[in-house]
Amino acid sequence: MHMTNQHKAYIYGIATVLLWSTVASAFKLSLKHLEPAQLLLFSSLVSALALTAILAFQGRLTLLFSYTREQYLHSLLLGLINPFLYYLVLFEAYDRLPAQMAQPINYTWALTITFLSIPLLGQRIGVSEILAGFVCYSGVVVISTRGSLAGMQAVSLAGVGLALFSTVLWSLYWIYNTRDTRDPVAGLLLNFLFGLPFILAWCLLSTGLTLPSPAGLAGAAYVGLFEMGVTFVLWLMALRLSENTARVGYLIFLSPFLSLVFIRFLVGEEILASTVAGLGLIVAGLFLQQAGATRRKGREGRMRTG
Q1: Alpha carbon distances (Å) from 187 to 2, 69, 195, 211, 271
Q2: CA 120 to each of CA 78, 115, 171: distance values in angstroms, whole numbers, following the listed order
Q3: Which of 211, 213, 242, 244 counts the most CB atoms within 10 A of its CB?
Q4: In contact, 162 and 91? CB cutoff 8 Å
Q5: Hey, where are the domains in the chain?
Q6: Cβ 212 vs Cβ 220: under 8 Å
Q7: 2: pLDDT strictly greater than 70
Q8: How far apart are the first and last CA of the chain?
Q9: 3-state secondary structure the chain
């Protein structure tokens, strides 16, 4: 039976979502063996090697040497944000919080992008996006308080703050990345190559450089491959093959719920009802935000053609 491009897109998309759903557990398990800075260093090295191998396999490795001075400086800025600052902040958040809290809070980055696009890209938002923000961040409050104000005493507020700050960094990365016209895989690899010296310097200054245990190395390798490297390429292929990017885009909403299943059985955390309720609010808010953005684009399109 002939497989259409849309079917291939779904396969790549589902594979990406399944892999992304495991990374919160991988973060938490790896941080039992590594300091956040060390996990960042070794996972970034693995990701850079994986992306280099992918480019070499595609016969496009020479792209790394074909860009302008301005584009390399752009990679320096992007590499400072991701992988260095973003993953450092994210791993520190996971180090302080249960995975079932850190993962849904970090998931609000899609809404953070919308709000940061107002001052940085001059975009406008409607009532639905404002309502989406209220619903989303209500979910963050439910998760952070475990459903009651008394629950805040057992939660690291610094961890919650770091998880929220990670959404700002990730959003800034993607907003600045929208102006990048380079091949996406080559661009990502250059970001990692420029980010690695910052990561190494931070690691030397903060924790020192020691060879991790086999379990720590295995965790870093998994994170480097399936959070930072291969999944990015799989998702790109899903988007390129899909007849409509929204068809595979909505698969992303499965990820946080699947992630809770992995957290329960791999990490061993008892999933709280407040986590499920808060995550439901976050996802509902993101649906509202996407629906509002789609309606606004439709109206703008009709205005241009009317």
Answers
A1: 34, 13, 12, 29, 38
A2: 16, 9, 11
A3: 242
A4: no
A5: 98-155+272-306
A6: yes
A7: no
A8: 44
A9: CCCCHHHHHHHHHHHHHHHHHHHHHHHHHHCCCCCHHHHHHHHHHHHHHHHHHHHHHCCCHHHHHCCCHHHHHHHHHHHHHHHHHHHHHHHHHHHHCCHHHHHHHHCCHHHHHHHHHHHHHCCCCCHHHHHHHHHHHHHHHHHHHCCCHHHHHHCCHHHHHHHHHHHHHHHHHHHHHCCCCCCHHHHHHHHHHHHHHHHHHHHHHHCCCCCCCHHHHHHHHHHHHHHHHHHHHHHHHHHHHCCCHHHHHHHHHHHHHHHHHHHHHHHCCCCCHHHHHHHHHHHHHHHHHHHHHHHHHHHHHHHHHC
pLDDT score at 302:
56
Question: Mean per-residue pLDDT for 172-193?
Answer: 90
Which residues, other chains included, contact 165 with Cβ-Cβ below 8 Å and sequence gap of 6+?
Answer: 89
Asked whether 233 and 21 are in contact (CB, 8 A), the reply is no
Task: Give SS3 for 220.
Answer: helix
Q: Which of 36-45, 131-140, 145-154 has the highest mean pLDDT?
A: 36-45
Query: Residue 29: what residue type?
Result: L
pLDDT, tens only, 202-245: 999 998 888 889 999 999 999 999 998 888 888 888 888 877 77
Angstrom distance (rounded) from CA 108 to CA 138: 11
Q: Which amino acid is at 148?
A: S
pLDDT in tens, 58-85: 999 999 999 999 999 999 999 999 999 9
pLDDT tens column, 241-287: 877 776 677 788 888 999 999 999 999 999 999 999 999 999 998 88
Q: Encode pLDDT of 284-298 as tens digits.
A: 988 888 776 666 666
